[in-house]
Specification:
By secondary structure, the chain is of the alpha/beta class. The protein folds into 2 domains: 3-174, Spore Coat Polysaccharide Biosynthesis Protein SpsA, Chain A (Alpha-Beta Complex); 215-406, Alpha-Beta Complex (Spore Coat Polysaccharide Biosynthesis Protein SpsA, Chain A), CATH 3.90.550.10. It has 17 helices and 15 strands. It has helices at 22-44, 60-63, 79-91, 109-119, 157-167, 184-196, 202-208, 226-237, 256-262, 275-285, 304-311, 341-349, 363-368, 379-390, 405-409, 411-426, 431-440; strands at residues 3-10, 50-55, 70-73, 96-100, 124-128, 134-139, 172-174, 216-222, 242-249, 266-270, 290-293, 298-299, 317-325, 360-362, 394-403. It has an 8-stranded mixed sheet, sandwiched between helices. Strand 8, helix 8 (226-237) and strand 9 form a beta-alpha-beta unit. Helix 1 (22-44) runs antiparallel to helix 7. The radius of gyration is 27 Å and the shape is elongated.
């Protein structure tokens, strides 16, 4: 049985392509991802009998690749009417035809063969997608009105389409379910797919690692932070521009895990204890082109993402200005409140930000540096020193507001040692030796 693959290709135009991804990627970023997905799809089907059904003004750089197969305009109408038109055209010269989109990672010739095998014994074959739609529809004949009036882009699309085909007396086979890249949550799944399949989808991989990927992934290391984690996660949900929040737990026993699990806007990961290990694990799982490392008790400004994008113009990384607030729920030492400003002064004038300043960095730069060094102390300072060697660090005005609870509990330590340890570290004293002294001062 000969079969034509009908690839539905939409022009990757800003503001028109992948619009549901615009909150995470921006309109231009969403369009560039759509372009990358289209190029990868064209590559994956190049050895098949291909009919490219396009809509909109597809750039010449892409239409030049159409020479690998026939092409036609989808024409007018809803998705069902356009699919009917394209399938009917393909079936004029083929025993079977199947429609696929451009946003299904890994879809290719093997799937065409599975569809062909299914059509040997069935009238139709459908590849379900996890959102209730389908990523593939294969037919041996397509009567007029077969797909008319169905609920497209709906959680009912698959069931309604299958019922329609069966009502017309057609036997239907189902393939394995796949995911497509449509909404923000799909980006994290896409990132995982690219990690597991390092040789596939080079155009999409390039986009995800490029500066065009403006998505901000927030990584929060947590260890027994139940008292503050829920409030932090709830606040982050109110901020615009944040693409995902990843909580990396280092072995909490106080309820932090259950808080992260039930927070709809957060993803929970587990790693070995250690702030550097936890942040590196979160970075590896993130899909954002920008990584923002955030402490549980650090409160971002409402326009944090806008400030980050501004600070990264021409820079690879940066941090916020810090304001340390006296915590009335912390250890009650009102006299320490004036000393909290010392840390704030450091954040204004130093070129080497600490972790409490919410360091942000382009993911490609972070991965090229192999992430945070796994040190017992000053992993943030060491990362900042390595970043500084690559060029100036951006400065976001912020402020990030941080609880002074730790300072209130141990004011002498934070007043003296934390102003001495960084200097000793930069003079060459090992972090292991400093860590041992830190333990003795507890």
């Amino acid at each position: 049985m000969n079969m034509t693959v009908c690839l539905f290709a939409k022009a990757p135009s800003s503001g028109k392509a992948k619009t549901r991804l615009s909150p995470a990627l921006g309109e231009q970023g969403a369009a560039r991802l759509a372009r990358a997905l289209l190029l990868d799809a064209l590559d994956s089907w190049q050895s098949t009998d291909l009919l490219i059904a396009h809509t909109g003004d597809v750039p010449t750089s892409i239409t030049d690749r159409f020479s690998m197969g026939r092409s036609m305009s989808q024409g007018e109408g809803d998705l069902g009417q356009r699919m009917e038109r394209v399938l009917a055209s393909a079936l004029e010269s083929s025993d079977a035809a199947m429609v696929v989109g451009t946003d299904i990672p890994g879809l290719g010739e093997r799937d065409a063969e599975l569809a062909r095998i299914a059509l040997d014994t069935h009238d139709a074959v459908i590849g379900p997608s996890h959102d209730g739609g389908f990523y593939l529809l294969g037919l041996k004949h397509c009567s007029r009105g077969l797909l008319d009036g169905l609920p497209w882009s709906s959680s009912e699309t698959l069931s309604a389409t299958k019922s329609r085909l069966e009502e017309r007396g057609m036997s239907v086979a189902l393939l394995d379910a796949r995911f497509d890249v449509d909404v923000q949550d799909d980006l994290s799944v896409l990132g995982g797919f690219l990690t597991r399949n390092p040789t596939l989808m080079p155009h999409t991989r390039h986009f995800m690692n490029s500066e065009d990927n403006r998505a901000v992934s927030v990584v929060i290391p947590a260890l027994n932070e139940a008292a503050r984690l829920e409030s932090q996660l709830g606040y982050l949900e109110t901020l615009s521009g944040i693409a995902e929040v990843i909580v990396v737990d280092g072995g909490s026993t106080d309820g932090s895990i259950s808080i992260a699990e039930r927070q709809s806007g957060a993803r929970l990961l587990h790693s070995a204890k250690g702030r550097a290990r936890q942040m590196n694990a979160g970075a590896q799982a993130a899909f954002g082109g920008i990584l923002l490392f955030l402490h549980v008790d650090a409160r971002l400004p409402g326009d944090a993402c806008q400030q980050i994008h501004q600070a990264l113009r021409g820079n690879r990384a940066g941090a916020f200005r810090l304001v340390t607030d006296y915590d009335p729920k912390g250890y009650h030492r009102p006299w320490v409140a004036p000393f909290l400003r010392l840390a704030d002064m450091r954040s204004r004038y130093t070129q080497l930000p600490y972790g409490d300043q919410a360091i942000f960095v382009r993911s490609s730069t972070f991965l090229n540096l192999a992430g945070y060094p796994e040190l017992p102390l000053f992993e943030d300072l060491e990362l900042a020193m390595r970043l500084r060697k690559l060029g100036p660090l951006g400065r976001a005005p912020g402020p990030v507001r941080v609880s002074g609870r730790r300072f209130q509990e141990r004011p002498l330590y934070y007043l003296v040692l934390m102003n001495t340890f960084p200097l000793l570290y930069r003079l060459g004293v090992s972090p292991e030796r400093l860590a041992s002294f830190y333990q003795r001062t507890k």
